[in-house]
């Protein structure tokens, strides 16, 4: 088996991309929890639905950036390989 530097870089880039995509698990769990708590808050106080939904959606948008950054890093590792 003869592995040169270029093959090693490609293999490590693929492994790193897989690890970066795992960053999408956290935002998914967090958004599910936020949506559940938002639904229960609206159930307790239906008059405050607008404020609850706005705050919940803003929080979910902020949480989603982590997943998007992980996807961006994965795409960069897979398709931009400056060392090879």
From TrEMBL:
GO molecular function, one term: proton-transporting ATP synthase activity, rotational mechanism
Annotated CDD domains: ATP-synt_Fo_c_NaATPase
TM annotation in the entry: 61-80
Membrane topology reported for the UniProt record: Multi-pass membrane protein
Domain of life of the source: Bacteria
Gene3D superfamilies: lithium bound rotor ring of v- atpase (1.20.120.610)
Domain called V-ATPase proteolipid subunit C-like: residue spans: 15-77
Localization per record: Cell membrane; Membrane
Site (Reversibly protonated during proton transport): 64
GO cellular component entries: plasma membrane; proton-transporting ATP synthase complex; proton-transporting two-sector ATPase complex, proton-transporting domain
Main location: membrane
Keywords: ATP synthesis, Cell membrane, CF(0), Hydrogen ion transport, Ion transport, Lipid-binding, Membrane, Transmembrane, Transmembrane helix, Transport
Function: F(1)F(0) ATP synthase produces ATP from ADP in the presence of a proton or sodium gradient. F-type ATPases consist of two structural domains, F(1) containing the extramembraneous catalytic core and F(0) containing the membrane proton channel, linked together by a central stalk and a peripheral stalk. During catalysis, ATP synthesis in the catalytic domain of F(1) is coupled via a rotary mechanism of the central stalk subunits to proton translocation. Key component of the F(0) channel; it plays a direct role in translocation across the membrane. A homomeric c-ring of between 10-14 subunits forms the central stalk rotor element with the F(1) delta and epsilon subunits.
Family to which the UniProt record says this protein belongs: Belongs to the ATPase C chain family.
Name the record gives this protein: ATP synthase subunit c
Origin species: Lachnobacterium bovis DSM 14045
The gene coding this protein: atpE
């Amino acid at each position: 088996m003869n592995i040169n530097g270029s093959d090693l870089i490609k293999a490590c880039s693929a492994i790193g991309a897989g690890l970066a995509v795992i960053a999408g698990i956290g935002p998914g769990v967090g958004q599910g929890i936020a949506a559940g708590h938002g639904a229960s808050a609206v159930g307790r106080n239906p008059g405050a639905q607008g404020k609850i939904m706005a705050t919940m959606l803003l929080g979910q948008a902020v949480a989603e950036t982590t997943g998007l950054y992980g996807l961006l890093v994965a795409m960069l590792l897979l398709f931009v390989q400056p060392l090879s």
